[in-house]
Amino acid sequence: MANTKSTSESQNSQDSRKTEEKDTERNMAEDRPNPMEVLRQARTQLAELTGMAAENVSSFEQTEEGWSLEIEVLELSRVPDTMSLMASYQVELDPQGQLTGYRRVRRYERGRADAHRQGGR
Q1: Which of 32, 76, 77, 96 makes the best surface tag, with the fewest CB within 10 Å?
Q2: pLDDT digits over 42-56, tens only?
Q3: Rounded (5°) CA angle 13-19-23
């Protein structure tokens, strides 16, 4: 009888641990922002740090460390608009969408296509 009780307690303990693990995974998933929230946060945070408005996001992917984006910004407005200077910034965010780093990877005139890079990047 004592052996049955011990086995039952052991099973209950294992079930309890599995439930706690599932709850932890669920809470971690709930803490992560959805992709649209990440895009908005990245654009806002980059604009605050650089003082330049983000015009669009040209690449976006989830990584093991969080998120990686390439954001196009207007660096210098000129007339005509096709002569304005644009820049692409590589932006890294943690899993919660907080900016951890950025760097300018390219600068170009708005009206010029970059024929030497794949995907127009």
Answers
A1: 77
A2: 999 999 999 998 999
A3: 145
